[in-house]
Amino acid sequence: MGLCKKCKIKDATNKSNKCVDCDREYYRQFYKSRKELGLCIKCHRKNSRDTLLCLTCASFAKRRQKDRRVLAKKDFLCVSCGQSTDGQRTECEKCWTKRNDRFFSLSSTAYLEGKCGQCLRNTAKDGLKTCSECLEKSRQHYKKKKHQIQKKNKDLKLLIFDHYGHKCACCGENNTLLLNVDHINNDGNKHRLKVKNSLGVYKEIVDLKFPSSYQLLCWNCNMGKYLNGGICPHKENI
C-alpha cells in the first residue's frame, strides 16, 4: 500500500492511503468542525444537541449497538473486540482490564476533585466516592437484577462442584448445601483477601481451567481440617 500520503513517514493501513494516526487526526478534526457547525456527523442535518449525533441517529446507533452486544453474548464473544471470552464475562481479559484501568483512573481523578467517581459530574456524598443519584441508581439496578445475579453465581458454583466430583473428597458427602471449595495448600485466607470474596475465588478457578490445588470438602471436614492444623480428623483415624 505504500507510505501515508499525509505524513509520508508511516505505512498506510487503509483505503484512504493514510496511516492510523493521520486517519484518526482527520476524523477528530472532522467531528470537531461538524460539532462547531451544529451538524450531526452521521446524517449532516441540523443538530440542536451538544453531542456528535442528532437524536434520530443516536437512537438508531443505540439500538444497533444493543443488537450487536446481544449476538456477541450468545456466541461467547467479547462485546468490544469480538474475540472469544471465558464464558463468565462479556468482555475478553484484555478489553476488561483496559476498561477497568481507564475507569479507575477517571474515578480517582474525579474523587480528588470532590466529584462522584461514577458519573464524574455530581458532588460526592460525604464520606463516600459516589453521589446520592448514583447510589440510588445502583440500588435500583441491584433490586432489578438481584435474582438474575444470584442465578448466575449459583450456576458458576455448580459448574465448579461438578468438575471436582460434587462430593466431599474426605467423607463423600454430596449434598450441595453442605459442600464448599477447599484450598489444598491451606492458603484460602490469603487468597480470599486478594480476590475480595468467595465469588472471586470461583471466577479465578474457572479462569485457571480448574487447577488441582482445589478440592471439595463438606463443612465438617473443612472446619476439622482448619482446627486440626491442615489435616481432617477423619484421615487421622484411618
Describe the structure.
The chain is mainly α. Helices cover 51% and strands 4% of the residues. The chain has a domain of 82 residues. Helix 4 packs across helix 6. The longest helix has 32 residues. The mean pLDDT is 86.
Largest β sheet strand count, sense and barrel closure: 2 strands, antiparallel
- How far apart are the termini? 74 Å
Record field, number of beta strands: 2
Q: Tell me the Rg in angstroms.
A: 26 Å
- Please tell me the overall pLDDT: 86
Q: Helical residue percent?
A: 40-55%
Q: What are the low-pLDDT stretches, counting only 5+ consecutive residues below 50?
A: none
Strand content: under 5%
Helix count equals 8
Sheet with most strands: strand arrangement: 1-2
Q: What order do the SSEs take from the amino end to the carboxyl end, as H and E?
A: HHHHEHHEHH
Shape: elongated
Derived from helix and strand composition plus strand pairing, the structural class reads mainly alpha
